[in-house]
Amino acid sequence: MDPHHPEAHRRMTRALALLAALWLGALVAPRAASAQAAAAALAQGMRAYDDLNFDEASGLLRRALAVQGADALAPADVTRALIYLAATELLRDRRDSAVATSRRLVLLDPRFRPDELVFPPQVLTLYEAVRRATPVVTGRAPPDTTIHAGSEELAMRLYASAFHDITAKLVAEDGRAVRTLYTGPIADSLVLRWNGLDSSGTRAPPPGRYAITISSFDRQGRVARMLRVPLQLVQAFGRVDTLPHPAPPADSLLRRERQSMGPALRAFAPGALAGVAIAVLPGVVAGGEDASGGRFVVGGAVTIAGIAAALSHHPGRSIPANVAHNDTLRAAWRREVDDVTRRNAARVREAMLGIRAGTPVLLTPEGP
Amino acid sequence: MKRVLLLACATFGVPLQAQSRWEVSAGASGGHEIVRSRPDTTRERRSGLVFTGEAVATRGPFIARLRYGQGHVTADTGTPPSPRRDVVEGEALVGYKARPWLTLWVGPHARTFAVPGLSDRRWLFWSGRATARGSLFPGRVESFVELWQGFTGRLSKPVESATGGGAEAGLQVRLARHPIWARLGYRVEQGRVTGGPRETVEALTLTVGYVPLR
Predict the structure, then answer these.
(1) Among all residues of chain B, which has the CA nearest to that of A268?
(2) Confidence of residue A12 (pLDDT cuts 50, 70, 90)
């Protein structure tokens, strides 16, 4: 530094600062210029629309919407660009394009409604028709929640484009349904709640990757769209050790509930054997003689007595005392199962379940 | 004399309980008997009523049975009909209850046919028997089958050694809360002499008896 020329030193410092500023500006200028270009295209497109220059407006709005990545329009600007584009296409007599643009807007923001002061009635009517014909819900779960499974709930507000039926399920990573959370209609919005338990209602699903899927059905009952909200379940604290359910009463403890055939057969056998003996003994004892038919009177009487004895044991009939005994055992077992179920549910409730929600993804059967 | 008195008492259904450990029952029966004889190459069939009295005494597993019966049979075939025959038969057996359902017996068994004016013809066998009983309604109704085979036998006219065997089966009912029992039975037995006469007896019997209540 030259202490004899302070003015020259100040000039030098200013020149260096200006140079640094120019260099920094050169670095950031293209990005800012790109973002500004999307916004500027949107602004120019809107002006062109206001000037009824629809062809130019269409081109500018499409250019604004085409920008992707970090330079893309903000969500609110995208919404604005789409409704202006839909209006532009309709006023250019390109109804199909207007419908497609409107549907894209409905899927992006089911709650969006066009400004009645800005757009003409035919645009409002078209958008309303498309909205009603496009059942879709959107929603977002809290990104990180911790609940007591069974006693607290994860709440997720859903918004619908129009009145339609939905089914909301918690599904495992492999697609297996863990619990159905809601099945029924949705009008404008609905709060979807999950208490952290699976379909048994007694225990939380094991930690892992899950998703809440909300299927929107069209008027024909077909799945029109599905909103998928990824979830990561973690055991916050409090490990759950549930008790095993007691085994049902062993067969050795249960009594026979119906009369068996054994006693009846044992009662019938002596009569039958004696009857047969009476029929065949004359041939054994006095072979060659014609035995009298009178013996069949005795043989028949003995056999009939044997049949009566067998029937007196009521084979197959219910034994009320044994049925009552078995019912008592089974009732005691069911009480034990219920008790274990209650205790397990209490243990589950004491455990904390961590729920981390991801970004919702909208899926459609025919593609995005 | 004493034995005759005992038999008479048993025949008419008088219970005897000389000692508390003895169990005695008695009964009387009527039966229709059919006798088929082959004295030589001819055949004869006679039938008639025979009335029988019996007494059974039991002490522990040991048992004794006396039966005595008499009646007459007349010819069903033949011209001119042969004269009426009187029938007298009896047995005296001692037995042992080898199982609750099985009793083994041994003793003499005789049957005599008497024709007025002619000498009697008597079959006499020493026999072994087995009686099996099966309960249909416990304590009330039971069926029974009895088989016997003669160890030795003798026919008095003509005097020959004889063989024989027989069987009896039926149903015995004991009335509830009454000391009365009844038995419906069918009996068939045959005596034979090798190369000689043969006689087969069938009988349908109905017996009513008395046994003291325990």
Answers:
(1) B136
(2) low
